[in-house]
Specification:
Elements: H1 2-13, H2 17-24, E1 43-44, E2 47-48, E3 51-52, E4 64-65, H3 67-80, E5 85-92, E6 98-104, E7 116-121, H4 129-144, H5 149-157, E8 159-163, H6 168-171, H7 209-219, E9 223-230, E10 233-238, H8 253-270, E11 283-285, H9 286-289, H10 296-304, E12 307-314, H11 324-340, H12 349-353, E13 362-364, E14 371-375, E15 382-386, E16 391-395, E17 401-403, E18 410-416, E19 419-425
Parallel strand pairs: 3-4, 7-8, 7-9, 9-12, 10-11
Antiparallel strand pairs: 1-2, 5-6, 6-8, 10-12, 13-14, 14-17, 15-16, 15-18, 18-19
The structure holds zinc ion.
Residues 124, 127, 193, 230, 232 line the site of zinc ion (ZN).
Length: 426
Amino acid sequence: MVAMKKLLISATLFFTVGSLCAQTGVGRVLMLRPDAFPPTQETVSGKALTMATTVEEMASWDRYPTYETYLAMMQRWAIDYPGLCTIDTIGTSVQGRLILAAHIMGSNAYQQVRPQFFYSSTIHGDEVTGYVMMLRLIDTLLSSYGTSQRLTELVNTTDIYINPLANPDGTYYHGNHTVQGSRRYNADGIDLNRNYPDPFGGSAKNLPQENEAMIDYVSAHQFRLSANLHGGAEVMNYPWDCFTSIQNPHPAASWWKEVCQRFVDTARAISNSHFRDVNTSGVIAGGDWYVIHGGRQDYMNYYHNCLEVTMEISSVKTLSTTQLCEYWRFLSPSLINYIAEIHTAPLLGVDEVVSQQEPMLDIRPNPTGDMVWFSCPTKGGVELYDAQGRRLQLLPQGTQSVSLAGLPQGVYLLRSGSATAKVIKR
Ligand SMILES: [Zn+2]
């Protein structure tokens, strides 16, 4: 019965390409104040990087907002849609810029527990296509509420959080007035997407300020499904990033492949030339493309049991403003459908074995190359599971160590009674 209900919800939440384009194709006029300043036009290598210095200038969605315009847009949505949108401050950057999220909540009439969804973009400051896509997505969800049955239902059944700009110091590296000269790193020269706690390294030391704030924010929520938007390629990069799929496939790998392929196919049905610069499918397991450590995707999957994917959405990192509307045209149905995927998302294997609330086994060393020693807080045996939740060994009562020799590199779970610990085999 529950499964049937889930299916019904998900079926009504998905869009056909045609219907969504009809709903979102019109550039909505956002706001109001007459413009006191002419638009700032800048070019890099012949590329237009036109800036909007007022909220009104964003109405046609073919500009990047100045930092002040971005703040004004977020504030305006909270004012224009009370009860539907609030703005959360996730934290501040090294240079004191705000890291914000729009929280979009449906009607009180639907007060069942709603799964929490999170979009975040532009952790690499020069990968700005997703920044504008996220702003336009916020505007579309809010302005369609009550008029589009499907979007209204999506907002009523899902707790949606959207952080358009995770690295404002990188994006506005040359000043709040321009994205020209934006860069990948934060103001301290740190790559934020290499400095999250990692399944291999345990808790990262000297966390960048932006990541510390983001960790506090996601720790205060229970995000079930999320995505981190990048540029520089067009491919759906699903977890893990720190393992190859042969070393350690993600427990939900088959679901990820389906979801990512739906995203790509829906976009290609509108504009067939996209998502082709990495491989033919447009979908790849992160570690099979290239292995990284300290990425946010793996942090979210590993530490929060949140299904996060990395969306590489434009081959050009700092897209010309003349192309922003075209990217919205072919990406927006996929971006909206991806939110609805939360209603079909599986539980992670590890999550099915045991919840995170239970007491921890004290184990060491972790990560390990082979042996793991533990002090057992409860009586009874110790069980060893793989990341898919399959029990590999049952060790008798009194056992104080287990050998992982012969097992592939990856994440494992030890359980004794209600106490658990994740252990990493290097
Ligand atoms: Zn990136």
